[in-house]
Design goal:
The protein contains one helix and eleven strands; from the N terminus they run E-E-E-E-E-E-E-E-E-H-E-E. By secondary structure, it is mostly beta strands. Strands 2, 4, 5, 6, 9, 10 and 11 form a seven-stranded mixed β-sheet that branches. A hairpin with a 6-residue loop joins strand 4 and strand 5. It is globular, with a radius of gyration of 13 Å. The mean pLDDT is 96.
């Protein structure tokens, strides 16, 4: 069964940190560009960060540059999103997706994916 499973979400205070994980099963993650996306209530889904198959190319949305770091461990079939200096406006459901062929910019600017996870809630609040 092909699936992506996100984990690591939760409630955190402003300025705090979280690390999200996206684990793949049923297919080999290193054949795909992987993206993290988020969707807040009443808003469209937006690309947060995307990483190429060998991590040579990475895209970050302007709103998260300098605060979020995407990485991948192909040996573990997992992609991570380290989020620091979190703000209330980062509150959303975070999804990961896999797509190939594509570029990191194309995938993130127009959210798209062959496979999607079910999402994990991130809430930043005091």
């Amino acid at each position: 069964q092909v699936q992506l499973v996100e984990s690591g979400g939760g409630l955190v205070q402003p300025g705090g940190s979280l690390r999200l994980s996206c684990a793949a099963s049923g297919f080999t993650l290193d054949d795909y560009v992987i993206g993290w996306f988020r969707q807040a209530p009443g808003k469209e889904r937006e690309g947060v960060s995307c990483i190429s198959t060998r991590a040579y190319n990475i895209y970050y949305a302007d709103s998260v540059k300098g605060r979020f770091t995407i990485s991948r461990d192909n040996t573990k079939n997992t992609v991570y999103l380290q989020m620091s200096s979190l703000k209330p406006e980062d509150t959303a459901v975070y999804y990961c997706a896999a797509l190939y062929p594509t570029t990191v910019q194309a995938m993130c600017v127009r959210p798209s994916g062959t496979y999607w996870g079910q999402g994990t809630q991130v809430t930043v609040s005091s």
